[in-house]
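I have been asked to look over a protein record a colleague put together. Alongside the sequence sits a line of tokens, each denoting a local backbone shape. Please read both lines and tell me whether the tokens look consistent with the sequence. Take the sequence as given and treat only the tokens as open to question. I have pasted the whole thing underneath without changing anything:
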Amino acid sequence: MNTPDVPAPADPHAPGASIRHTRAKGEPRFPDGPRADPAGSHFERRIRSFQPRRSRVTAGQADALQRLWPVWGLDIDGQQVIDLGELFGNDRPVVLEIGFGMGEATAQMAAGDPDTNILAVDVHTPGQGNLLNLADQGGMTNVRVANGDAIILLREMLTPDSLDGLRVYFPDPWPKKRHHKRRLIQPEFLTLAATRLRPGALVHCATDWEPYAEQMLDVLSAHPDFENTQADGGFAPRPAFRPLTRFEGQGLDKGHVVNDLLFRRVPHKSA
């Protein structure tokens, strides 16, 4: 009697394979990886500029999270002040990047400027795993991946004048008017960020949502702690150090306009 062919089980470690695991109630998704809610209920409830995205984690991303999170990962719990020199193992300049997506651009910037450390923050688990994997494959030891709320990181865990730059690329535009209060680039956020940025530090924002770009320009231009690097007070050309991502290229092909903003932290006012 002929036996019907039975398909071989899928290789969970094949490139791009997704990983699914039945966990007991309360069991963490990645025992040695990022925590689901690192700050817990220690801090006030407030309107947030981000919303966690749930999507499948590939086997490669899961492996990177398990292997590399204890070495290159940081949970934003708000319970400790970070020594950035200790975190990176050197005293090189540190740039904070808020919202890195899948991490391709971050990895390219880290590879192109190994003398600058990048502290990259996001809440997207697949992206965290992907960036760790890219950094590992490229031998880029100047990347650390932080998980959680960037506001708590800035306010509770970083010391004054500890950052040499801030990057916010393609943040959620929250296009509906009633959601504009959720946008990250607001006067209160800039006031907080200014306390952690050294004088002369570069703030670099980019967005393909033109109304948000206009708001960013207005808010940054009006803030006393920042000055536009552009003599005409407008948007900046895309600097060479910010890679053109595949997503951005697709948008440009469709006629989207991408605006960059480059502002500097002005020197502290004397008492």
Observations:
- Helices lie at 59-72, 84-88, 104-112, 125-138, 150-157, 187-196, 210-222, 246-253.
- The longest strand covers residues 197-207.
- The domain at 59-265 is CATH 3.40.50.150 (Rossmann fold).
- The longest helix spans residues 59-72.
